[in-house]
User: Which sequence fits this backbone?
């Protein structure tokens, strides 16, 4: 009986050690995410014109070099049956610092309406920034 318990304890210890090795602890976080009119970030905005390029500046902090930051540009209610429609996305791997994302419409004209920029860090959404396109 004692030998069985020893085997079970040894097996649980191996499983526990394996799980502990696969856990990644990080303090990486998005310190700020702001929509801006220019890549230098001089002017924050919540609205763009139809012929603008959308810019988003993300401040990544305490991040190892392989952190993935992704931005998904969404037009609200513009898809089939009134669903939201993804109009662009971009992802980069980076360490701490300032990241600049942009979206330029392929036809040079965004539709007037409601949009949002979704920001993800290592696959988890951290921010959802609503904005408008209007004349």
Assistant:
């Amino acid at each position: 009986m004692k030998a069985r318990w020893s085997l079970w304890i040894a097996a649980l210890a191996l499983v526990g050690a394996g799980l502990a090795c696969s856990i990644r602890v990080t303090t990486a976080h998005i310190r700020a995410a702001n929509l801006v009119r220019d890549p230098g970030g001089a002017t924050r905005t919540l609205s763009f014109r139809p012929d603008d390029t959308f810019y988003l500046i993300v401040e990544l902090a305490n991040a190892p070099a392989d952190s993935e930051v992704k931005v998904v540009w969404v037009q609200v209610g513009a898809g089939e049956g009134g669903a939201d429609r993804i109009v662009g996305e971009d992802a980069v791997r980076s360490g701490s610092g300032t990241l600049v994302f942009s979206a330029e419409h392929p036809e040079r004209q965004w539709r007037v309406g409601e949009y949002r920029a979704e920001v993800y860090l290592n696959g988890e959404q951290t921010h959802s920034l609503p904005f408008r396109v209007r004349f």
Observations:
- The beta strands are 29-36, 47-48, 54-61, 67-75, 85-94, 97-103, 113-121, 124-133.
- The chain has a mean pLDDT of 88.
- The chain is about 15% helix and 45% strand.
